[in-house]
Amino acid sequence: MDKKSVTTLTLKQINKHTVYQYIYRQRETSKFQIVQDLNMGLSTVSQNLTTLEKEGLIERNGYFASTGGRKAQIIRIVPDLRIAIGIGILKNMFHLVAVDLYGEAVARETIPLAYEDTPEYYDTFAGEVLHFIEKNEYPTEKISGISIATQGIISPDGSSVTYGAIMGNTRMQLSDFASRLPFPCHLVHDSKAAADLELWNHPKLDSALVFLLNRNLGGAVITNHSVHQGFSMHSGSLEHICVEPDGPVCYCGNRGCLETFCSANALELRSGLSVKEFFLKLRDPDSSGEHLQNIWQDYLRHLAFAIRNLNLLIDCPVILSGYLAPYFLPEDLDRLLGLINEHTPFPLAKDSLLTGTHGQYTPAIGAALFYVKNFLDT
Ligand SMILES: [Zn+2]
């Protein structure tokens, strides 16, 4: 191919990509709108729309209400052209989601399965994933990949877990999954996956501190619009910062880690109730004793202590994410903010304390975004 035709081809691809990205961002648009906003000729836009429609990337369906003259046809991308499967593995279960090109979880399920480092575990796991895909009637070619979020630090090359004290999965390999599933597979630390979802939902954030309030605590640091990984991939492991030197022993071997006060497990241990029961009773004026109020106050106090200290290091909004996040009511956030700002030279603004909305599915959905972004970038 000569230089000129290469350039023409590249330009064509760039135009196609630009038109697709524009429709994606607008969600619903018309041909006229594209011509106007992208400053492209009508025939170029028409050509691109025809190609995109032929390739199944977009659809034209229905009409906008008329503003005089001919009604404009509504143009959208096909959101389920590709489906990414996201998984969040925990000690006794795993969460499974199907995510479309807008990052929406269109199907979700929780499978009870105790983790063990055996071929039988990985066989059962893979069988459940394939069953989920089949049950939702996704043809093989629709699946862009399977992204697995697990507790534990992942090696920089993404091939294995290098620290997995909670689940005992330090020897977990990406190949344990990839060898059993006929799709591309990806392994990610669950805290980082959760932060990816929060970043997706708050695209304007340059920096943030993410507290993953799951059964075990996790965390991540967002800087420059991306999740900070770190030299050996453990940036943001705020679960092991010490909040009370003589506190309870953590699974890491140290005492008084934030994990021992602010994980959902710690809350259950202290109250003797499941998370669901705890909040039901806490919110019920008839059954909520002083005891539960004290436990919750103590939880918020420790969380505030950590937030205040970390916010000195990175001056940015704070996102409460994961399992416990949807349980936070506006009055809890006010109390937490009050505790954070009790004695501090640099108060945190109210609109800088945010909560995630996807609860226990957060790491699974965040993991799936790896393949969603992959598709959108190419
Ligand atoms: Zn610890």
Secondary-structure content class = alpha/beta
**How many domains in all?**
3
In CATH, what is the homologous superfamily of the largest domain?
ATPase, nucleotide binding domain
Main beta sheet strand tally, sense and closure = 5 strands, mixed
- β content, as a range? 15-25%
CATH topology of the largest domain: Nucleotidyltransferase, domain 5
The tally of helices reads: 12
Q: What spatial order of strands do you see in the largest sheet? A: 5-4-3-6-9
**Regions with pLDDT < 50 over 5+ consecutive residues?**
none
* Level-1 CATH class name of the largest domain: Alpha Beta
Integer-rounded radius of gyration? 24 Å
CATH architecture of the largest domain: 2-Layer Sandwich
End-to-end Cα distance, whole Å, is 23 Å
User: What is bound: which ligands?
Assistant: zinc ion
- Give a count of the beta strands, DSSP E runs of length 2 or more: 14
Give an overview in words.
The chain is built from twelve helices and 14 strands. A hairpin with a 5-residue loop joins β4 (93-99) and β5. α1 packs across α3 and α10 packs across α11 (330-340). The chain folds into three domains: 3-77, Winged helix-like DNA-binding domain superfamily/Winged helix DNA-binding domain (Arc Repressor Mutant, subunit A, Orthogonal Bundle); 83-194 and 362-377, 2-Layer Sandwich (Nucleotidyltransferase, domain 5); 203-358, ATPase, nucleotide binding domain (Nucleotidyltransferase, domain 5), CATH 3.30.420. The chain is 40% helix and 19% strand. The protein is an alpha/beta fold and 378 residues long. The strands form four sheets. The protein has a five-stranded mixed β-sheet. The protein binds zinc ion. Residues 240, 250, 252, 254, 257, 259 line the site of zinc ion.
